[in-house]
Amino acid sequence: MDSLEEKTVKRETIFDGKIIKLVVDDVELPNGKLSKREIVKHPGAVAVIAITAENKMLMVEQYRKPLEKTIVEIPAGKIEPNEDPMLTASRELEEETGFKTNELTHLVSFYTSPGFADELLHIYVAKDLKKQANPLQADEDEFVNILEVNIDEALQLIEEKVICDAKTVYAVQYWKLLNALR
Amino acid sequence: MDSLEEKTVKRETIFDGKIIKLVVDDVELPNGKLSKREIVKHPGAVAVIAITAENKMLMVEQYRKPLEKTIVEIPAGKIEPNEDPMLTASRELEEETGFKTNELTHLVSFYTSPGFADELLHIYVAKDLKKQANPLQADEDEFVNILEVNIDEALQLIEEKVICDAKTVYAVQYWKLLNALR
Q1: Which of A53, A60, A83, A96 is the most exposed place for a label (fewest CB within 10 A)?
Q2: CB-based contact A143 B45, cutoff 8 Å
Q3: Are residues A24 and A97 both part of a single domain?
Q4: Is Hydrolase found in the keyword set (chains A, B) (predicted)?
Q5: A174 three-class SS
Q6: Residue B1: its pLDDT value, please?
């Protein structure tokens, strides 16, 4: 597989922000020619598939500035420096939904946009969910509404493009697969 | 849902590249406080789930500079200005795999990373695949190897983290669901 490798000739840092960093690499292609690659560096994130005892998936309604609209997603958040992704998952679930879990299993991890970003998203499945009387508080610049949706409602929200992001579309398909295998 | 909206106070363009653009927005939060949002603008992309008559999925092995490694993905590519996404899908399938299709169906579209990017990825399912003697040529800075994998191989590649991006993990789960419903 090494024959496809692109060697870094030079890296220029364009922006180093609060969440992302942007670099531009000059690379040498497998045929010896030069090209440029625009790359977003991201700390990585987690997301949680949490289905309650009533067979409803916990979701959050959140305004996403890049899309200029409010969408519905499974609970998620970025990994803090040196934080174990499983702890991030447990923390974000409680902060965003008020539910705590004693049983968190890693399902899969995937790069969201390998063409231009290194963001790796870890997806966990949470079971044994308990509503907390005094849950952890969300970040001060984060505003969300909590939803509990059954599978038909989730499929309807996809139809309506209110559920419209990779991790949540993946989560609902996972739920369909679970039901199909049952 | 409007109560969650973040109003743009100011937008600063940091970088305007060949593929992505980076802007930083000063926003007014629902509680009246100010915050910043780092946003990557992307033209959007397509990906194609193509299962051959031999029940194998067409995939490409490609070096991804942001990840500094070679991974296996379903055929995909970014949308050119004013291009119909379905034409992009048909073109990318032929350029990357040498197969042409006469039957392309839109499956779903999702934002890959709604927290920091506006990239919208359209996924199509291709049927009636025909190997071309003289297929369209790929972009000059694009080097890929073509693979045809059965479902067990695909699941094994996920296990080995060689398949490790959102669209391809989604595509393999879609394939599992198809088989489960059969």
Answers
A1: A53
A2: no
A3: no
A4: yes
A5: helix
A6: 45
Q: Which residue of B has its CA nearest to A170?
A: B170
Q: Please judge whether B38 and A20 are an interchain contact, meaning their C-beta atoms are less than 8 angstroms apart.
A: yes
pLDDT of A17 higher than 70: yes
d(CA B114, CA B78): 17
Based on the domain organization, do B73 and B96 belong to the same domain? Answer: yes
C-alpha to C-alpha distances, B18 to A116, B12, B43, B115, nearest whole angstrom: 11, 18, 10, 22
Q: What is the number of domains present in chain B?
A: 2
Per-residue pLDDT tens digits for B7-26: 999 999 999 999 999 999 99
Model ipTM?
A: 0.96
> Phi then psi for A43, rounded to 5 degrees?
-70, -10
Q: Does A2 reside within a domain?
A: no
Residue A6: both structure tokens together:
């692109």
- The answer to whether residue A68 is catalytic is no
Whether residue B155 is predicted with pLDDT greater than 50 in this model: the reply is yes
A177 contacts in chain B (CB < 8 Å)? 173, 176-177, 180
Is residue A1 in some structural domain? Answer: no
Give A-chain residues touching B169 at CB under 8 angstroms: 108, 110, 170
Let me know whether B153 and B115 are in one domain. Answer: yes
Residue A140 lies in a domain: yes
Q: Is residue B1 part of a domain?
A: no
| Nearest chain B CA: its distance from A93 CA (Å) | 17
Q: What per-residue confidence (pLDDT) applies to A2?
A: 60
pLDDT in tens, B51-70: 999 999 999 999 999 999 99
| Residue among A33, A113, A121, A158 with most chain B CBs within 10 A, to mutate | A113
Q: Which of A111, A173, A176 sits opposite B170 (nearest CB)?
A: A173
Query: Do B155 and B121 lie in a common domain?
Result: yes
Largest CA distance in chain A: 62
Distance, in Å, from the CA atom of A75 to the CA atom of A77, rounded to the nearest integer, reads: 7
Are B129 and B101 in contact by the 8 Å Cβ rule? The answer is yes
Domain co-membership, A12 together with A98: no
In terms of residue numbers, what domain contains A141? 45-181
Same-domain pairing of A80 and A25? no
CA distance A131 to chain B (A): 24
